[in-house]
Amino acid sequence: MLSLIFSTALVLAPVSDVGDAPLLQESLLAAAKLESQDAWGAAVLYCAAARKGSVEAQYRLGMLYAFGEGVPENRKMASTLFSSAAEQGHVRAHAMLETIRLGASVLPPCILSEVKPEKLPELAAPTLPALNANQQKIARIVQQIALWHDVDPQFALSIARVESQLNPQALSLKSAQGVMQLIPGTAERFNVRDAFNASQNIRGGVRYLRWLLDRYQGNVVLVAASYNAGEKAVDRYKGVPPYPETQSYVAKVMKLYPYAQHKMKQHYINKAQMRPVL
């Protein structure tokens, strides 16, 4: 079990001394505040806290490795950290294991010893034009999760932008929630427990896109129409339903993703082929 790796093989003592708990809590709070300005600096603090047995630090460090924030993207290390935290009862870590779709036992060197984590080169984190800092962060999560599910990241991002403008707290009059605007039925269908949790919501929306892409053989227009109006409506009308909202929605998506057929750029295909089939 991965929790044993942390507690024995790595000699990571749990926080049993009440006197140490406030210090760890302060370190975690400092790291969380640092994430948006200096993700690598936050990773350094999370590494130190994880070595001392902090389950929350394991989860947060896993998130940085999963999405390449501050440290180079490494799904194996992220999966290992999520597995350990999940085994110790961390609910969000368990949800991320479902999202990351990979089993591994590879720990970051900064967990094994008192060294600093590898730093992500400045040029390795491209900015996305016309998006503010919060939207760019959500956009990178959308793109990464899409890649893990064999969906063109640009297509998933186009849907997310039209749906919510990448707002994790978005709520429509029809009770559609979060970045991918999941209605309660769709959230339940794709095992999303908290629709306002960005990674869970995006995972559910991307899984729905993957299902629709398979159903309509990659036809982008039909997939977009189904995402908005539901596949039953698309099947009933044998195409885009004559609803003004849906027709406008499809036009907006096609403006951002002007391809009739879903396609993966060779760069994304090469990265996707590196993912083991589970």
From TrEMBL:
Q: Which Gene3D superfamilies match?
A: 1.10.530.10, Tetratricopeptide repeat domain
Q: Keyword Heme on this protein?
A: no
- Where in the numbering of this chain does the Transglycosylase SLT domain appear? 145-239
InterPro entries noted in UniProt: Lysozyme-like_dom_sf (IPR023346), Sel1-like (IPR006597), TPR-like_helical_dom_sf (IPR011990), Transglyc_AS (IPR000189), Transglycosylase_SLT_dom_1 (IPR008258)
What molecular function does GO assign, one term? peptidoglycan lytic transglycosylase activity
Organism domain of life:
Bacteria
A Pfam family reported for this protein in Swiss-Prot or TrEMBL: SLT
| Ranges that cross the membrane | none
Top enzyme category = lyase
Gene Ontology BP terms: peptidoglycan metabolic process
GO annotations of cellular component type: membrane
Keywords from the named record: Lyase
> What Enzyme Commission number does this protein have?
4.2.2.-
Describe the family membership recorded for this protein in Swiss-Prot or TrEMBL: Belongs to the transglycosylase Slt family.
What PANTHER family does the database record attribute to this sequence?
MEMBRANE-BOUND LYTIC MUREIN TRANSGLYCOSYLASE C (PTHR37423:SF2), SOLUBLE LYTIC MUREIN TRANSGLYCOSYLASE-RELATED (PTHR37423)
**Designated name of the protein:** Sel1 repeat-containing protein
Lineage here is:
Bacteria, Pseudomonadati, Pseudomonadota, Betaproteobacteria, Neisseriales
GN (gene name): slt_2
